[in-house]
Amino acid sequence: MQGSTSNPLQQGGQNQFSPKHINLDEDEKINVPNENVNEAASVIDNNSKMQDDVKLKRKRKKSSAVWNDIIEKRVLSFVHVPPPCMGREIGYAISACLKEWKIEGKIFSISVDNASYNDKVVSTLKDDLSRVKKLPCGGRLFHVRCCAHILNLLVKDGLSMIKSVIGEVREAVKYINSSEMRRQMFSNAAQQLQVDDRKLALDVPTRWNSTYDMLSLAINFKDVFPRYAEYEPHFKHVPTKQDWVNVQHVCEVLKVFKMCTNIISGTDYPTANLYLMEVYKVKKAIDEGVLSEIKFIKEMANKMKDKFDKYWGECHLLMAIAAVLDPHQKVEYLKFCYPRIYPPAESKKNIEEVELALEILYDEYLEMDESSTKEATSQKTGSSSGSTASKPNEEASSGWGVFGKFLKNVQVVTPKKSELKMYLEEPVLMLEEVDIPKFSLLDWWNTHKLKYRVLSKMASDILGVPVSTVASEATFSAGGRVIDPYRSTLAPSTVEMLICGGDWIRKLYGVKKKLKKEDAPCEVVLPIAKKI
């Protein structure tokens, strides 16, 4: 189980809405709106600078609002689920973890991959958690599907249509990389043709992004392979000119997916407002492929479109709300991209659905804020009532209290606009394209937290929701390295200590985990060509 904090807004040492995320070993990630930073810190210290920072924050109870705009994650638990590992059993195991940490009443959402049993996991958790506390927006934001997994399915289906082209390039690179002599001969051939590139890559067939890297690097040597074949009579895997044309077209399509995957799969930086833009880019690339005159690109795009419609054919509320909470997108961005993703009638319906969900969600946050304010006021009044009981009623004696009651009866007060309406009515923030990557949404909300007191708390929760289970999958993969054939009899509690302790120590000292050797593409660095 992984815990993470994301852009929390802390007001006077307390935070009613700042999200925490929990990743579980079965690819589940849960977003937790914390009700009290100090209380949560006593349960689990998962803030950016460990215990020292938590102690510091406890000393800041009377300080002004503070934003922590660094997305954090921690492994909280790594539990063993005895067979049969069905959806219901996994759901019960997660519920037990949440109760152990006393956070079952603070869950905002859960992110899972698209395995069929996860639907049962989510429904089980939804039923259990809704008994403890009402879920935001009626639970419509609770189930978040892993976008990285959906992209993976889209691309794999598309690449299955061009196996022969990819296979020819893969075998060519594999052949050259099999000995130092072959690499040297290939390097000499590259020098003769004045090709300055020094690197090839051999992909991992199960990792489509490594396949893209292999193709994009190999195409730089398209003229070198035939020249190398002249020196090496046993080299039979020489891609034809048409093969390289096809590879070029494939790379143009995959480049979009590669860039989107890099953003969606990030675990340290992405906020949820970035995701809808990436989905729009994917849909645009697929639509262009469907209209392509190249037969195999059209077939590949049609297969991708089927998967896109299956998983993103319906309105994704979380992505849309997060986009609206970006001041340089707002509802206007939905009006721009939805007609390009959905049919006209469905597009209009989806925009109305998002606007309604926004109002419902804001009203819920406003209600929570008002109840917490009343509770704080009542506690303050109760503590001061003893000292004020003996004082004379100056207000009554001066007559100003009676005048105040008179004003309430005769003066008409204009209803105040909600923060949400004020925000939406303001013009969209115009940014130059070169300035967009530098724009920090968290800094913007930090600057406007006094103007949008409630809406900024809502934004801190929504923007921190993860739409990828990459972090939890990496944790689960780490379990296989801990429980290797030499340590297969370790107790579950020992494994949990190793996994959790390793994760926390790496974060404490800023150590990044490396890819497993079998997951990383094999780099083929060509030697310096010898003079002939």
TrEMBL record:
<keyword id="KW-0863">Zinc-finger</keyword>
<keyword id="KW-0539">Nucleus</keyword>
<keyword id="KW-0479">Metal-binding</keyword>
<feature type="region of interest" description="Disordered">
    <location>
        <begin position="372"/>
        <end position="395"/>
    </location>
</feature>
<feature type="domain" description="HAT C-terminal dimerisation">
    <location>
        <begin position="419"/>
        <end position="505"/>
    </location>
</feature>
<feature type="compositionally biased region" description="Polar residues">
    <location>
        <begin position="1"/>
        <end position="18"/>
    </location>
</feature>
<dbReference type="GO" id="GO:0005634">
    <property type="term" value="C:nucleus"/>
</dbReference>
<dbReference type="InterPro" id="IPR052035">
    <property type="entry name" value="ZnF_BED_domain_contain"/>
</dbReference>
<dbReference type="GO" id="GO:0008270">
    <property type="term" value="F:zinc ion binding"/>
</dbReference>
<dbReference type="Pfam" id="PF14372">
    <property type="entry name" value="hAT-like_RNase-H"/>
</dbReference>
<protein>
    <recommendedName>
        <fullName>Zinc finger BED domain-containing protein RICESLEEPER 2-like</fullName>
    </recommendedName>
</protein>
<feature type="region of interest" description="Disordered">
    <location>
        <begin position="1"/>
        <end position="27"/>
    </location>
</feature>
<keyword id="KW-0238">DNA-binding</keyword>
<keyword id="KW-0862">Zinc</keyword>
<dbReference type="Pfam" id="PF05699">
    <property type="entry name" value="Dimer_Tnp_hAT"/>
</dbReference>
<dbReference type="InterPro" id="IPR008906">
    <property type="entry name" value="HATC_C_dom"/>
</dbReference>
<dbReference type="InterPro" id="IPR025525">
    <property type="entry name" value="hAT-like_transposase_RNase-H"/>
</dbReference>
<dbReference type="GO" id="GO:0003677">
    <property type="term" value="F:DNA binding"/>
</dbReference>
<dbReference type="InterPro" id="IPR012337">
    <property type="entry name" value="RNaseH-like_sf"/>
</dbReference>
<dbReference type="GO" id="GO:0046983">
    <property type="term" value="F:protein dimerization activity"/>
</dbReference>
<feature type="domain" description="hAT-like transposase RNase-H fold">
    <location>
        <begin position="265"/>
        <end position="365"/>
    </location>
</feature>
<feature type="compositionally biased region" description="Low complexity">
    <location>
        <begin position="376"/>
        <end position="391"/>
    </location>
</feature>
